[in-house]
Inverse folding.
């Protein structure tokens, strides 16, 4: 056990694990759960990578404002560009064609004053009934 | 104020550049020494905090040193340098663990699995994986407290300063961590007792 551990325990910093079993458990964990000591080559590689990182982080500082400026300019130009032909075609396609309008909204379809062709062609008794009622269109109510 | 003549201006610019270079060189020299003094311990601490992964430990160590490099120029209090640096390292390890948890959630196939058992064969790999599992079962604060105090042998006060917690909180974390480990590694404790 190292001096630090002894100090920790003497100062009452370690609230638990003062008995021998706990101390040995901790020591065993410490010994087992330990990485390899870095070999000189690994140490060199670690430092090389570290300096490479530092250099990499130093560089972007120069072109970061330029990149931000280019992004802003490109966005502004995109929104400020004149409308192209494709936009007009798109709008025209949305307009209902004339013949479609006729079908949808024409008076001849929607009009209730449909011409039934008068009483011509009806049997005689029906002609009489028609004259009696005096109506020129069939009642849409309850068949009356 | 008198306007500087071109020659004076050029001399002043050269002096500024030279001073900056000298400061950069000073910082670089100071940083080289700083790394050399802390490299081994920083990597060991990172390795223990990230769950025994070599590559992750290297990554966390380098990121912590990189952050330290940025702040080292402004940092003059050498006495508090260790606390400051290890706090960066512990936080960096915590970020890494969070990122790894998120990555494992979204991409379970990329799971790194157990710690690099092959690289630490000096000890029993089965026992090591059990210890890793037991430590992984602790909360991040409990793990940090346990590693800093019991494995890295810092005092509770130092660990508390690094973790940014009160001494009492760290003691409480230590108590709970030890309780959990005692339970998880009960057979190991019995083996020791015998």
């Amino acid at each position: 056990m190292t001096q630090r551990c002894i100090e920790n325990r003497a100062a009452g910093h370690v609230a638990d694990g003062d008995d021998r079993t706990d101390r040995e458990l901790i020591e065993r964990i410490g010994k087992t759960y330990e990485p390899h000591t870095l070999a000189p080559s690994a140490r060199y590689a670690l430092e090389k990578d570290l300096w490479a990182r530092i250099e990499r982080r130093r560089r972007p500082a120069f072109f970061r404002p330029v990149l931000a400026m280019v992004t802003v300019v490109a966005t502004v130009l995109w929104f400020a560009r004149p409308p192209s032909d494709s936009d007009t075609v798109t709008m025209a396609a949305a307009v209902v064609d004339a013949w479609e309008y006729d079908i949808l909204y024409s008076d001849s379809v929607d009009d209730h004053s449909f011409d039934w062709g008068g009483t011509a062609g009806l049997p005689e008794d029906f002609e009489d009934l028609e004259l009696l009622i005096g109506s020129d269109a069939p009642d849409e109510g309850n068949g009356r | 104020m008198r306007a500087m003549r071109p020659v004076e201006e050029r001399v002043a610019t050269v002096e500024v550049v030279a001073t900056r270079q000298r400061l950069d060189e000073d910082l670089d020299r100071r940083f080289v020494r700083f790394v050399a003094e802390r490299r081994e311990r920083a990597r060991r601490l990172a390795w223990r905090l990230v769950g025994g992964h070599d590559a992750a430990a290297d990554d966390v160590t380098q990121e912590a040193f990189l952050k330290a490099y940025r702040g080292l120029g402004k940092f003059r209090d050498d006495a508090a340098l260790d606390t400051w640096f290890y706090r960066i390292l512990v936080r960096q390890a915590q970020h890494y663990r969070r990122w790894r948890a998120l990555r494992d959630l979204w991409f379970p196939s990329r799971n790194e699995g157990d710690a690099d058992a092959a690289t630490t064969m000096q000890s029993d790999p089965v026992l090591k994986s059990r210890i890793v599992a037991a430590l992984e079962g602790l909360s991040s604060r409990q793990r940090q407290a346990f590693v800093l105090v019991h494995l890295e042998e810092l005092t509770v006060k130092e660990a508390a300063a690094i973790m940014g917690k009160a001494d009492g909180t760290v003691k409480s974390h230590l108590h709970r961590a030890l309780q959990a480990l005692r339970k998880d590694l009960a057979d190991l404790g019995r083996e020791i007792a015998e």
Notes: Chain B touches chain A through 49 residues (CB under 8 Å). The radius of gyration of chain B is 22 Å. Chain B has a mean pLDDT of 83.
